[in-house]
Design goal:
Blueprint: H1 3-9, E1 18-23, H2 28-38, E2 42-48, E3 62-66, H3 74-80, E4 85-89, H4 105-120, H5 122-135, E5 139-141, H6 143-146, E6 155-156, H7 164-182, E7 188-192, E8 195-199, H8 205-215, E9 228-231, E10 245-246, H9 248-256, E11 261-265, E12 270-271, H10 274-284, E13 287-291
Parallel strand pairs: 1-2, 1-4, 2-3, 4-5, 9-11, 10-12, 11-13
Antiparallel strand pairs: 6-13, 7-8, 7-9
């Protein structure tokens, strides 16, 4: 299956279609499964061993558990279950150990690509996995494509809106987030006083916000208020997996860090537990704003701001 053919088939779903979900940690795989059920689609849950933290929420679904090192059995599993569409949803905290991967004929053909992708970073690996699946007849679909309400909308999404001074922080944070994204390091940055003061690393957004909270006592930040967390897709990112996301815990941590709000790319970022996330931001007086994309991402046309 070519990429063009895959693009045409990703969303060709009819009521009763069965969609596979590779489930990692967090609420995203649960929300995808529930969203598919509301639309009349049957979800088959493939839980990444040792990664899922909400197993109880999948009690009513057909399911299987797959070790990361047993990835070679994924396609046969999908074929046996007549699954033609697959969603990668949730956090996978570790990478498969190559020495423990069980080889199959299909997997051996792409092992050189996987090794090369591991050297390039997370997004390189995701691209190899999705394109490898598509060549074997499995259309990989983004969570935001099958459950559109998960995607962040454009504009101010909360009662509180950014002040004019906040836009300096938003633009500084976006520039920094795009810079580290181009290096496949992270997807988020925090700007205070018109300049980036902290960048996301492999430890994730929660640790970034905790560092910022601790930095409030630093001499160079003393007296500075407000500030913004900005999350963006990486330039050229594979948009069908690992989109930037926020949830209620992000809002709480941003408030604890003394920030005024959160900005994220509309259509390329996810708001998990949406009603609760927005309600909590409104209660705390934080803004959440969706920014139009400014560059191409995996063949998607830029919207510009």
């Amino acid at each position: 299956m070519t990429r063009a053919e895959a693009a045409e088939t990703r969303l060709v779903l009819t009521p009763g279609s069965k969609v596979g979900i590779i489930a990692g940690g967090g609420s995203l795989p649960v929300e995808v499964a529930e969203g598919l059920a509301r639309q009349g689609y049957s979800a088959f849950i493939i839980m990444a061993e040792g990664e899922v933290d909400r197993e109880a929420d999948f009690a009513g679904y057909e399911q299987a558990t797959l070790a990361l090192e047993d990835v070679g059995s994924l396609v046969p599993l999908l074929k046996r279950r007549n699954i033609s569409h697959l969603v990668l949803a949730g956090e996978i905290r570790r990478r498969p150990r190559l020495a423990r991967i069980r080889p199959t004929l299909g997997l051996l053909a792409i092992i050189p690509s996987v090794i090369s992708a591991l050297a390039r970073g997370d997004d390189g690996l995701l691209k190899v996995i999705t394109r490898g699946l598509e060549k074997r007849g499995i259309a990989v679909v983004g969570a935001h494509e099958v459950v559109p309400e998960l995607a962040a909308g454009k504009g101010t999404l909360t009662v509180t809106a950014p002040k004019q001074s906040d836009w300096r922080d938003i633009e500084a944070g976006r520039a920094a987030a795009k810079a580290i994204g181009a290096l496949d390091i992270g997807q988020a940055a925090i700007a205070i006083g018109g300049r980036a003061i902290a960048l996301e690393g492999v430890e994730g957004t929660a640790a970034l916000l905790e560092r910022t909270r601790e930095l409030r006592g630093h001499g160079r930040l003393a007296g500075k208020t407000r500030g913004v967390l900005v999350k963006c897709a990486k330039p050229g990112q594979e948009l069908r997996a690992d989109l930037p996301s926020i949830g209620p815990q992000t809002v709480e941590a941003a408030y604890a860090a003394g920030l005024a709000g959160i900005a994220l790319e509309a259509g390329r970022s996810l708001i998990l537990e949406g009603p609760e996330t927005l309600a909590r931001a409104n209660a705390l007086g934080l803004f959440i704003v969706g920014l139009p994309a400014t560059e191409l991402a995996d063949g998607e046309p830029a919207n510009g701001r």
